[in-house]
Design a protein that fits this description.
Elements: H1 2-13, H2 15-19, H3 25-62, H4 66-100, E1 102-103, E2 106-107
Antiparallel strand pairs: 1-2
Helix pairs in contact: 3-4
Amino acid sequence: MKKSIAFITAGASFLPMIAFAQSGTQIFSILGIVQNILNFIVPMVITLGVIYFIYGVIGYVSAADEEKRTESRNVMIYGIIGLFVIVSIWGLIRFLGSSTGVGQGGINCLTNPTLPGC
């Protein structure tokens, strides 16, 4: 009984999306909002990654013993890996946004005029 109630509740939460499925612009406006949020957050996260890497470099240069150098080297490696992951995901999001026609400010009708709402 509890599983069926959970299933009905989960299904009912998608009813507004089904109702707006005819227009087609609802999903593009949601993608535009997500892209605008990511365009605001990602540069800050990249800056934090660079600061974390520089913190590791400073720790490596100023370390007196081998244990501190190893710890600082790991911080630098984690910083580089983090920056790679952040930039890769950001690039993937931008690629998906441009291939679906969602650019800055919403639907890009110039590059993809066949989209609904153009």
